[in-house]
Design brief:
It is built from five helices and twelve strands. It is an alpha+beta fold. The protein folds into two domains: about 110 residues, no CATH class; about 130 residues, Sandwich (Immunoglobulin-like). Helix 1 runs antiparallel to helix 2.
Length: about 270
């Protein structure tokens, strides 16, 4: 192997880091390839975790590929120096086992608070877990969204029902109750940094607090679990609006479309 291939191999970490930095700083030709807009309080922590993990991976990637490129250069075919064969090195094996283990333990401890806030510590109201703002039932291939009616309870005859449209109030804790009508689905809202699998026969909950959102903007709700031939078109829309506008929307939906009962789960 000659020097050309050594330099070509070295281009891998150089171009990789170049693309990484261009995407992060929104530089041509990688504009708009980084994370989507974040409108969630919890999303700030998730973004920090994402960036930290990518930074660690980038350092490891550049280090290992650079070492390989240097080795290719030193032990190229035109060089008579031969590499020595090492059958075992206990110290080296211990080092490269301890370092990854240390990184994983650090990440596990560092992310625990975020995990607890997103998956364990459900928002409270009057000393009790806050009731769901809406019930979302996933189906092939869409989202059934139910809001409590005048009685403030889900699962009663005055529930407000709408397809593929989720309205939530801004700057308030929102709890969603998630169920599936048929197969496994997965609710994914990129701008909220929320992703929750929905298993048939089980009830799941997720929660968030949206902030700094555009009330005139529609945010995508996607299914990220392959759920059938129509999976690609299973899409809904999230609307984050001020409390006054949310109440008005609920009033209008309640007047126009009041379900007599929740659809039967077959």
């Amino acid at each position: 192997m000659n020097r050309f291939w050594s330099l070509l191999f070295l281009c891998v970490p150089v171009l990789g880091m170049g693309a990484y930095l261009a995407s992060y700083f929104d530089v041509w030709p990688m504009q708009s390839t980084w994370l989507p807009e974040n409108v969630s309080v919890g999303g700030r922590t998730i973004d920090r975790l994402f960036n930290l993990i990518h930074l660690i991976c980038a350092v490891i990637f550049v280090s290992t590929t650079t070492v390989l490129a240097v080795a290719l250069w030193i032990y190229r075919s035109s060089n008579r120096q031969r590499a020595s064969h090492v059958h075992s090195n206990t110290r080296l094996e211990i080092i490269w086992s301890i370092i990854p283990a240390g990184i994983l333990i650090f990440l596990a401890l560092y992310q625990y608070e975020s995990w607890a806030n997103d998956k364990i510590r459900r928002p409270m109201e009057n000393g009790k877990p806050k009731p769901p703002t809406a019930l979302i039932i996933a189906k092939q291939f869409g989202w059934e969204v139910y809001y409590p009616g005048l009685d403030g309870k889900l699962g009663t005859k005055d529930d407000i029902y709408v397809e593929n449209e989720l309205y939530v109030p801004e700057n308030e804790d929102v709890v969603l109750q998630l169920e599936s009508r048929d197969v496994i689905h997965s609710l994914f809202v990129p701008v909220l940094r929320i992703k929750q699998d929905i298993v048939p026969g089980m009830t799941h909950y997720c929660w968030f607090r949206a902030e700094n959102a555009d009330p005139n903007k529609n945010y995508e709700i996607a299914c990220t679990e392959l759920c059938g031939r129509g999976h690609y078109r299973m899409k809904g829309w999230l609307h984050i609006v001020p409390r006054e506008q949310f109440d008005q929307v609920m009033l209008e939906l309640g007047t126009a479309r009041i379900s007599t009962k929740l659809p039967t789960k077959e």
